[in-house]
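Quick log. Single chain, no ligands specified.
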Amino acid sequence: MSQHTWRGTTPQTIPSGGARAPERTDAPDGRRLGLTLGMLGLPMYVALGAPSVALPAIGRALAVPFGATAWILAAWSLTSALAMPVAGRLLVRWSPFQVLVAGVVALAAGSALAGAGPTLSVVIVGRLIGGAGAGATVIAVFAAATALPGRQRIRALGIIAAASATASGCGTLLGGAVTAWLGWRAVLAIPVLALPLLLAALPSRRALTRSGSGVRNGSTGRLDIVGAAVLSVLAGSLITLLQAHSVGLPAPVTLVVAAAGVLAAVGLWWRVRSTPDGFVPRRGIASRGFLAAGLIGGTVFAGYYGVLFRAPSLIEQATGGGPLEAGVLLVPAAACSVLAGRLVGTLTDRFTGWQVPAGLAALPLTGLVLSLTRRPTADRRPEPDATRGSPR
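-> predicted structure:
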Protein backbone atom coordinates (compact mmCIF):
# COMPACT_ATOMS: atom_id res chain seq x y z
CA MET A 1 0.00 0.00 0.00
CA SER A 2 1.47 3.31 -1.02
CA GLN A 3 1.87 6.27 1.26
CA HIS A 4 -0.83 8.19 -0.60
CA THR A 5 -3.32 5.36 -0.27
CA TRP A 6 -2.66 5.06 3.45
CA ARG A 7 -3.33 8.71 4.02
CA GLY A 8 -6.53 8.53 2.05
CA THR A 9 -5.81 11.80 0.23
CA THR A 10 -4.68 12.84 -3.17
CA PRO A 11 -0.91 13.18 -3.59
CA GLN A 12 0.45 16.43 -2.23
CA THR A 13 3.73 17.98 -3.18
CA ILE A 14 6.03 19.90 -0.90
CA PRO A 15 7.26 23.13 -2.43
CA SER A 16 10.94 23.94 -2.34
CA GLY A 17 10.40 26.34 0.55
CA GLY A 18 9.22 23.45 2.78
CA ALA A 19 5.56 24.60 3.02
CA ARG A 20 2.82 22.05 2.43
CA ALA A 21 0.59 22.62 -0.55
CA PRO A 22 -2.94 23.76 0.30
CA GLU A 23 -5.56 21.09 0.83
CA ARG A 24 -8.00 20.15 -1.88
CA THR A 25 -10.73 22.67 -2.35
CA ASP A 26 -13.17 20.03 -3.58
CA ALA A 27 -12.85 17.89 -0.45
CA PRO A 28 -16.08 17.14 1.44
CA ASP A 29 -16.88 19.39 4.39
CA GLY A 30 -15.64 17.61 7.52
CA ARG A 31 -18.18 19.28 9.82
CA ARG A 32 -21.16 18.40 7.68
CA LEU A 33 -20.04 14.83 7.03
CA GLY A 34 -19.10 14.34 10.69
CA LEU A 35 -22.50 15.62 11.83
CA THR A 36 -24.29 13.33 9.38
CA LEU A 37 -22.31 10.25 10.42
CA GLY A 38 -22.48 11.15 14.10
CA MET A 39 -26.27 11.44 14.03
CA LEU A 40 -26.48 8.15 12.16
CA GLY A 41 -24.51 6.42 14.87
CA LEU A 42 -26.51 7.74 17.83
CA PRO A 43 -29.08 4.89 17.96
CA MET A 44 -26.31 2.35 17.50
CA TYR A 45 -24.18 3.56 20.42
CA VAL A 46 -27.06 3.28 22.90
CA ALA A 47 -27.92 -0.25 21.75
CA LEU A 48 -25.68 -1.92 24.34
CA GLY A 49 -26.15 0.27 27.40
CA ALA A 50 -29.88 0.93 27.07
CA PRO A 51 -31.10 -2.72 27.04
CA SER A 52 -28.99 -3.53 30.12
CA VAL A 53 -31.40 -1.54 32.30
CA ALA A 54 -34.34 -3.43 30.80
CA LEU A 55 -32.97 -6.93 31.45
CA PRO A 56 -34.93 -7.50 34.68
CA ALA A 57 -38.15 -6.43 32.97
CA ILE A 58 -37.40 -8.66 29.98
CA GLY A 59 -36.82 -11.65 32.23
CA ARG A 60 -40.15 -11.11 33.98
CA ALA A 61 -42.08 -10.46 30.76
CA LEU A 62 -40.75 -13.52 28.93
CA ALA A 63 -40.85 -15.71 32.06
CA VAL A 64 -37.17 -16.65 31.86
CA PRO A 65 -34.51 -16.63 34.60
CA PHE A 66 -32.57 -13.39 34.85
CA GLY A 67 -29.28 -15.11 33.99
CA ALA A 68 -30.61 -16.12 30.58
CA THR A 69 -31.10 -12.47 29.61
CA ALA A 70 -27.31 -12.07 29.55
CA TRP A 71 -27.45 -13.43 26.00
CA ILE A 72 -29.21 -10.24 24.91
CA LEU A 73 -26.00 -8.30 25.56
CA ALA A 74 -23.59 -11.08 24.61
CA ALA A 75 -25.22 -11.72 21.23
CA TRP A 76 -24.86 -8.09 20.19
CA SER A 77 -21.22 -7.87 21.29
CA LEU A 78 -20.27 -11.13 19.57
CA THR A 79 -21.59 -10.41 16.10
CA SER A 80 -20.57 -6.76 16.28
CA ALA A 81 -16.97 -7.74 16.94
CA LEU A 82 -16.99 -10.36 14.19
CA ALA A 83 -18.60 -8.08 11.61
CA MET A 84 -15.96 -5.35 11.94
CA PRO A 85 -13.07 -7.18 10.23
CA VAL A 86 -15.45 -8.57 7.62
CA ALA A 87 -16.68 -5.06 6.82
CA GLY A 88 -13.09 -3.89 6.63
CA ARG A 89 -12.40 -6.50 3.98
CA LEU A 90 -15.55 -5.54 2.08
CA LEU A 91 -14.23 -1.99 1.80
CA VAL A 92 -11.66 -3.34 -0.64
CA ARG A 93 -14.48 -3.77 -3.17
CA TRP A 94 -17.30 -1.57 -1.85
CA SER A 95 -17.46 2.12 -1.04
CA PRO A 96 -18.13 3.22 2.56
CA PHE A 97 -21.63 4.26 1.53
CA GLN A 98 -22.48 0.77 0.30
CA VAL A 99 -21.18 -0.83 3.50
CA LEU A 100 -23.03 1.81 5.50
CA VAL A 101 -26.36 1.04 3.82
CA ALA A 102 -25.91 -2.70 4.30
CA GLY A 103 -24.98 -2.22 7.94
CA VAL A 104 -27.87 0.10 8.76
CA VAL A 105 -30.40 -2.19 7.07
CA ALA A 106 -29.15 -5.19 9.07
CA LEU A 107 -29.05 -3.07 12.23
CA ALA A 108 -32.65 -1.93 11.82
CA ALA A 109 -34.00 -5.31 10.74
CA GLY A 110 -32.40 -7.15 13.62
CA SER A 111 -33.51 -4.58 16.18
CA ALA A 112 -37.08 -4.69 14.89
CA LEU A 113 -37.06 -8.48 15.20
CA ALA A 114 -35.65 -8.28 18.74
CA GLY A 115 -38.26 -5.72 19.77
CA ALA A 116 -41.11 -7.84 18.46
CA GLY A 117 -39.75 -11.24 19.50
CA PRO A 118 -42.30 -13.37 21.38
CA THR A 119 -39.63 -15.54 23.02
CA LEU A 120 -36.11 -14.99 24.27
CA SER A 121 -34.68 -17.11 21.45
CA VAL A 122 -36.21 -14.83 18.82
CA VAL A 123 -34.99 -11.77 20.70
CA ILE A 124 -31.45 -13.17 20.72
CA VAL A 125 -31.57 -13.92 16.99
CA GLY A 126 -32.61 -10.35 16.36
CA ARG A 127 -29.77 -9.07 18.52
CA LEU A 128 -27.31 -11.23 16.58
CA ILE A 129 -28.44 -9.68 13.31
CA GLY A 130 -28.49 -6.17 14.74
CA GLY A 131 -25.02 -6.54 16.23
CA ALA A 132 -23.60 -7.58 12.87
CA GLY A 133 -25.15 -4.51 11.28
CA ALA A 134 -23.74 -2.30 14.03
CA GLY A 135 -20.22 -3.62 13.48
CA ALA A 136 -20.40 -2.95 9.75
CA THR A 137 -21.85 0.52 10.36
CA VAL A 138 -19.02 1.48 12.72
CA ILE A 139 -16.37 0.49 10.18
CA ALA A 140 -18.12 2.35 7.36
CA VAL A 141 -18.50 5.51 9.46
CA PHE A 142 -14.85 5.68 10.46
CA ALA A 143 -13.62 4.60 7.02
CA ALA A 144 -15.47 7.52 5.45
CA ALA A 145 -14.16 9.97 8.06
CA THR A 146 -10.53 8.86 8.00
CA ALA A 147 -10.45 9.08 4.20
CA LEU A 148 -10.94 12.85 4.36
CA PRO A 149 -7.89 15.06 3.92
CA GLY A 150 -6.06 16.63 6.86
CA ARG A 151 -8.12 19.20 8.73
CA GLN A 152 -11.45 17.94 7.42
CA ARG A 153 -10.64 14.49 8.78
CA ILE A 154 -9.93 15.88 12.25
CA ARG A 155 -13.19 17.83 12.25
CA ALA A 156 -15.25 14.82 11.20
CA LEU A 157 -13.63 12.45 13.70
CA GLY A 158 -14.06 14.96 16.52
CA ILE A 159 -17.79 15.29 15.88
CA ILE A 160 -18.24 11.52 15.56
CA ALA A 161 -16.32 10.92 18.80
CA ALA A 162 -18.40 13.52 20.64
CA ALA A 163 -21.64 11.97 19.36
CA SER A 164 -20.60 8.44 20.33
CA ALA A 165 -19.45 9.49 23.80
CA THR A 166 -22.69 11.38 24.43
CA ALA A 167 -24.89 8.50 23.26
CA SER A 168 -22.91 5.92 25.23
CA GLY A 169 -23.01 8.06 28.36
CA CYS A 170 -26.77 8.54 28.13
CA GLY A 171 -27.47 4.91 27.20
CA THR A 172 -28.50 3.66 30.64
CA LEU A 173 -30.56 6.76 31.41
CA LEU A 174 -32.33 6.56 28.07
CA GLY A 175 -32.90 2.84 28.51
CA GLY A 176 -34.42 3.36 31.94
CA ALA A 177 -36.71 6.13 30.76
CA VAL A 178 -37.90 4.26 27.68
CA THR A 179 -38.47 1.07 29.66
CA ALA A 180 -40.50 2.90 32.29
CA TRP A 181 -42.63 4.84 29.81
CA LEU A 182 -42.82 2.70 26.66
CA GLY A 183 -41.74 -0.77 27.73
CA TRP A 184 -38.74 -3.00 27.15
CA ARG A 185 -39.65 -3.77 23.53
CA ALA A 186 -39.21 -0.11 22.63
CA VAL A 187 -35.71 -0.20 24.15
CA LEU A 188 -34.62 -3.10 21.95
CA ALA A 189 -36.09 -1.33 18.91
CA ILE A 190 -34.22 1.96 19.44
CA PRO A 191 -31.59 1.18 16.73
CA VAL A 192 -34.40 1.10 14.14
CA LEU A 193 -34.19 4.90 14.23
CA ALA A 194 -30.94 4.60 12.27
CA LEU A 195 -32.96 3.70 9.16
CA PRO A 196 -34.74 7.07 8.77
CA LEU A 197 -31.52 8.82 9.78
CA LEU A 198 -29.89 7.12 6.81
CA LEU A 199 -31.95 9.44 4.62
CA ALA A 200 -29.95 12.33 6.07
CA ALA A 201 -26.81 10.73 4.63
CA LEU A 202 -28.17 10.62 1.08
CA PRO A 203 -27.07 14.20 0.26
CA SER A 204 -23.55 13.13 1.29
CA ARG A 205 -23.63 10.03 -0.86
CA ARG A 206 -21.16 11.45 -3.37
CA ALA A 207 -18.74 12.36 -0.58
CA LEU A 208 -19.02 8.92 0.99
CA THR A 209 -18.50 7.18 -2.35
CA ARG A 210 -15.57 9.42 -3.23
CA SER A 211 -14.05 8.85 0.22
CA GLY A 212 -13.91 5.18 -0.56
CA SER A 213 -11.09 5.78 -3.02
CA GLY A 214 -8.89 6.60 -0.05
CA VAL A 215 -9.75 3.34 1.68
CA ARG A 216 -9.54 0.91 -1.16
CA ASN A 217 -6.17 0.02 -2.62
CA GLY A 218 -7.39 -1.69 -5.74
CA SER A 219 -6.76 -5.13 -4.30
CA THR A 220 -8.90 -7.93 -5.65
CA GLY A 221 -7.86 -10.53 -3.06
CA ARG A 222 -10.56 -12.91 -1.92
CA LEU A 223 -12.05 -12.86 1.54
CA ASP A 224 -10.48 -15.54 3.74
CA ILE A 225 -13.65 -17.45 4.59
CA VAL A 226 -11.82 -20.19 6.50
CA GLY A 227 -9.98 -17.67 8.68
CA ALA A 228 -13.19 -15.79 9.38
CA ALA A 229 -15.00 -19.03 10.26
CA VAL A 230 -12.43 -20.33 12.75
CA LEU A 231 -12.14 -16.91 14.39
CA SER A 232 -15.92 -16.76 14.72
CA VAL A 233 -16.06 -20.20 16.34
CA LEU A 234 -13.25 -19.27 18.73
CA ALA A 235 -14.86 -15.99 19.76
CA GLY A 236 -18.28 -17.59 20.12
CA SER A 237 -16.85 -20.38 22.25
CA LEU A 238 -15.08 -17.96 24.58
CA ILE A 239 -18.18 -15.84 25.11
CA THR A 240 -20.34 -18.93 25.62
CA LEU A 241 -17.93 -20.33 28.21
CA LEU A 242 -17.95 -17.02 30.07
CA GLN A 243 -21.75 -17.24 30.20
CA ALA A 244 -21.89 -20.97 31.00
CA HIS A 245 -22.44 -20.53 34.72
CA SER A 246 -24.87 -17.62 34.58
CA VAL A 247 -27.09 -19.27 31.98
CA GLY A 248 -26.83 -22.74 33.55
CA LEU A 249 -25.40 -24.65 30.60
CA PRO A 250 -25.28 -28.40 31.26
CA ALA A 251 -21.81 -29.86 31.78
CA PRO A 252 -21.82 -31.92 28.54
CA VAL A 253 -22.75 -28.85 26.50
CA THR A 254 -20.02 -26.83 28.20
CA LEU A 255 -17.46 -29.51 27.36
CA VAL A 256 -18.55 -29.55 23.72
CA VAL A 257 -18.24 -25.76 23.53
CA ALA A 258 -14.80 -25.90 25.15
CA ALA A 259 -13.66 -28.57 22.69
CA ALA A 260 -14.91 -26.48 19.78
CA GLY A 261 -12.95 -23.52 21.13
CA VAL A 262 -9.75 -25.56 21.38
CA LEU A 263 -10.16 -26.89 17.85
CA ALA A 264 -10.87 -23.38 16.59
CA ALA A 265 -7.74 -22.05 18.30
CA VAL A 266 -5.63 -24.77 16.67
CA GLY A 267 -7.28 -24.09 13.32
CA LEU A 268 -6.65 -20.38 13.63
CA TRP A 269 -2.99 -20.99 14.47
CA TRP A 270 -2.65 -23.21 11.40
CA ARG A 271 -4.46 -20.71 9.20
CA VAL A 272 -2.25 -17.82 10.29
CA ARG A 273 0.88 -19.85 9.52
CA SER A 274 -0.36 -21.06 6.14
CA THR A 275 -1.98 -17.77 5.06
CA PRO A 276 0.03 -14.84 6.48
CA ASP A 277 -2.15 -12.23 4.76
CA GLY A 278 -5.48 -13.91 5.48
CA PHE A 279 -8.39 -12.78 7.62
CA VAL A 280 -6.10 -12.67 10.67
CA PRO A 281 -2.79 -11.25 9.36
CA ARG A 282 0.34 -12.72 10.91
CA ARG A 283 2.08 -9.35 11.05
CA GLY A 284 -0.71 -8.06 13.30
CA ILE A 285 -0.72 -10.76 15.95
CA ALA A 286 3.08 -11.08 15.82
CA SER A 287 3.62 -7.39 16.54
CA ARG A 288 5.14 -6.46 19.86
CA GLY A 289 2.64 -6.03 22.67
CA PHE A 290 -0.33 -7.47 20.75
CA LEU A 291 -1.09 -10.30 23.17
CA ALA A 292 -0.70 -8.07 26.22
CA ALA A 293 -2.94 -5.42 24.69
CA GLY A 294 -5.55 -8.05 23.85
CA LEU A 295 -5.51 -9.40 27.40
CA ILE A 296 -5.85 -5.92 28.88
CA GLY A 297 -8.62 -4.99 26.47
CA GLY A 298 -10.48 -8.18 27.30
CA THR A 299 -10.21 -7.46 31.00
CA VAL A 300 -11.56 -3.93 30.61
CA PHE A 301 -14.44 -5.08 28.42
CA ALA A 302 -15.27 -7.92 30.81
CA GLY A 303 -15.59 -5.41 33.63
CA TYR A 304 -17.77 -3.13 31.52
CA TYR A 305 -19.95 -6.01 30.41
CA GLY A 306 -20.31 -7.27 33.98
CA VAL A 307 -21.50 -3.86 35.16
CA LEU A 308 -24.03 -3.59 32.34
CA PHE A 309 -25.43 -7.02 33.08
CA ARG A 310 -25.54 -7.10 36.86
CA ALA A 311 -25.70 -3.49 38.11
CA PRO A 312 -29.33 -2.70 37.11
CA SER A 313 -30.62 -5.81 38.88
CA LEU A 314 -28.61 -5.07 42.03
CA ILE A 315 -29.82 -1.47 42.06
CA GLU A 316 -33.44 -2.55 41.75
CA GLN A 317 -32.97 -5.03 44.61
CA ALA A 318 -31.28 -2.46 46.82
CA THR A 319 -33.61 0.48 46.18
CA GLY A 320 -36.85 -1.27 45.33
CA GLY A 321 -37.14 1.04 42.33
CA GLY A 322 -37.58 0.33 38.66
CA PRO A 323 -35.53 0.70 35.48
CA LEU A 324 -35.71 4.50 35.53
CA GLU A 325 -34.07 4.67 38.95
CA ALA A 326 -31.40 2.20 37.84
CA GLY A 327 -30.68 4.25 34.73
CA VAL A 328 -30.34 7.45 36.74
CA LEU A 329 -27.98 5.88 39.28
CA LEU A 330 -25.76 4.54 36.50
CA VAL A 331 -25.30 7.96 34.89
CA PRO A 332 -22.26 8.89 37.07
CA ALA A 333 -20.48 5.72 35.96
CA ALA A 334 -21.20 6.56 32.32
CA ALA A 335 -19.96 10.13 32.86
CA CYS A 336 -16.72 8.77 34.32
CA SER A 337 -16.20 6.68 31.19
CA VAL A 338 -16.53 9.77 29.01
CA LEU A 339 -14.11 11.77 31.15
CA ALA A 340 -11.68 8.86 31.27
CA GLY A 341 -11.18 9.09 27.51
CA ARG A 342 -9.86 12.63 27.82
CA LEU A 343 -7.78 11.74 30.87
CA VAL A 344 -6.06 8.84 29.15
CA GLY A 345 -5.09 11.14 26.30
CA THR A 346 -3.09 13.32 28.70
CA LEU A 347 -1.63 10.39 30.64
CA THR A 348 -0.08 8.86 27.53
CA ASP A 349 2.34 11.79 27.38
CA ARG A 350 3.53 11.24 30.96
CA PHE A 351 3.72 7.46 31.27
CA THR A 352 5.21 4.71 29.16
CA GLY A 353 3.16 2.68 26.72
CA TRP A 354 2.48 -0.27 29.04
CA GLN A 355 1.72 1.68 32.21
CA VAL A 356 -1.53 3.25 31.00
CA PRO A 357 -3.11 -0.02 29.75
CA ALA A 358 -1.97 -1.79 32.93
CA GLY A 359 -3.66 0.89 35.02
CA LEU A 360 -6.85 0.55 32.99
CA ALA A 361 -6.83 -3.22 33.49
CA ALA A 362 -6.41 -2.76 37.24
CA LEU A 363 -9.60 -0.69 37.52
CA PRO A 364 -12.15 -3.44 36.71
CA LEU A 365 -10.16 -5.90 38.83
CA THR A 366 -10.33 -3.49 41.76
CA GLY A 367 -14.06 -3.11 41.28
CA LEU A 368 -14.42 -6.89 41.21
CA VAL A 369 -12.56 -7.26 44.51
CA LEU A 370 -14.70 -4.57 46.12
CA SER A 371 -17.90 -6.20 44.91
CA LEU A 372 -16.84 -9.56 46.31
CA THR A 373 -16.28 -8.07 49.75
CA ARG A 374 -19.96 -7.05 49.95
CA ARG A 375 -22.12 -9.65 51.63
CA PRO A 376 -25.78 -9.75 50.56
CA THR A 377 -28.36 -9.36 53.29
CA ALA A 378 -30.61 -12.25 54.10
CA ASP A 379 -33.74 -10.66 52.69
CA ARG A 380 -32.11 -9.58 49.43
CA ARG A 381 -30.42 -12.74 48.31
CA PRO A 382 -31.27 -13.71 44.73
CA GLU A 383 -33.54 -16.65 44.19
CA PRO A 384 -31.74 -19.96 43.58
CA ASP A 385 -32.60 -19.88 39.87
CA ALA A 386 -32.23 -16.12 39.43
CA THR A 387 -28.87 -16.44 37.78
CA ARG A 388 -29.46 -19.59 35.81
CA GLY A 389 -31.42 -20.51 32.76
CA SER A 390 -31.25 -20.89 29.02
CA PRO A 391 -32.98 -19.17 26.13
CA ARG A 392 -36.42 -20.44 25.36
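The two ends are 49 Å apart (CA to CA).
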